[in-house]
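Quick start: read one record
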Amino acid sequence: MQQNRVGEQKLYRLLGRFSLILFVGFTALNAEQSFKNFKDYKKSQIQSFQTYKDERDTAFSNYLKQEWQAYNALAPVSLYETPKPVEIDSTKPQEMEPVGPKIVIAIKEDEKREEPIVSSTERKDISFDFYGSTLGFNIPSGIKNANFSPATQAGIANFFNSAASSEYETLLLEIEKISKSMNLNDWGVYLLVTKLSDKATTNQDNSKLLSWFLFNKMGYAVKIGLADNHTVLMHHSQKIIYSTPNYSFENKKYYVVSNYAKGNLGKVYSYKQEYQGATKALDLSLETLPNFKEKRESKSLTFSQFGIIYNIPITYNKNLIDFMATYPQADYETFFNAPLDSKTYADLATELKKHIDGKKASEAINFVLNFVQKSFKYEQDNRQFGREKVMFAQETLYFDKSDCEDRAVLFAYLVKELFDINVLGVKYKDHMATALYIPLDGDKITAGSRNFVIADPTYIDATIGMSMPKYRSLQPQSYIVVKNNKS
């Protein structure tokens, strides 16, 4: 009996091992089959995407080879019909009647921000400085080999075919990663792609073609054209970009941004159809500032009022100033609704607080108005920059000279932030002022159903409610709505 039990146990153990072997073998076969199925599935998905990508690019390549049409340039639109005054008015200083509640300025804590990502330049094909950060990129061989040859429509198709056959996806991901890290708006992305293209290619025609290719792949509505055997890059914008050559395609405006303030280009040969999926318009709004590395510099703003000299020290990020200097002429809403750098604002608010806390609202607001009127010299843009240039509030603080619209932008921002009141930009044919929604007497304008009292940051020593005499009886051409803190 004992032998039988031992034998049975051995038999069971053998059967168990055999079953385990069968189970393991079966599981392995299933796993292998599953893995093979997954690999086949993944391969099919990649092939499917590749087929879609290739079909889209092949269709567009074929379209580029069709006969192009001639498009005539539309006249660039100017911001002002009449040049702004060479000299500005001043009036006799007078005390502001104290009206309203006592002011206590609350200063927000300086925003904590992460340092922007700096891409490694080790073993990278190209590297360059981008507003304080060193960026490096690898350029796919298909893009390296892409060339505008011959210098005709066929050369553009050849460039596209070579770039489209490359492994460009990694490059696009790197651009997206850096753009997010630096909080770049569309203009920042434009500058990044332009700098990358200039570094990656051998000449300006190839650079514009590479930018065109990358912007299309990123979903932006851009077109390429030909003028005098050279390429012309055009960006669609729903809003006017002033002083910039532009063309109309199916009632959509495309702007040659690289030719801002440089005159017209004349006739361009191009195509109607957009690249599939590339429909995004270039948006120049700057509602949040880019996250550039700090390059902190300082200055002091000085002005006098009733014999007292005031000194207002501030700091600023020079990388941000350099970025703003590149801006084309966007609409006024862009400039009136862009913020100050948080550190610059904290500096300014802290100093102003020393002089206005405890004053009545009318006196406090008027002190800020006098600060903007008298801390800068007046100068026309054409004399200072050689072209019309609206400055962001950040730039107005940086430059020693400014004109009416620059001061209006700065004053509007300070009034909104310091006092939380509604403000408008008020545009005349050759001048810009502001108007405040506050219950004070003086010169007024009506916007909608509300009355706003004039505050002119260029009329030296004027108090709230005083217009320059020549504009007192004139109807403004337009108003610029400044978004309040609750918008």
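The domain at 296-481 is CATH 3.10.620 (C8orf32 fold).
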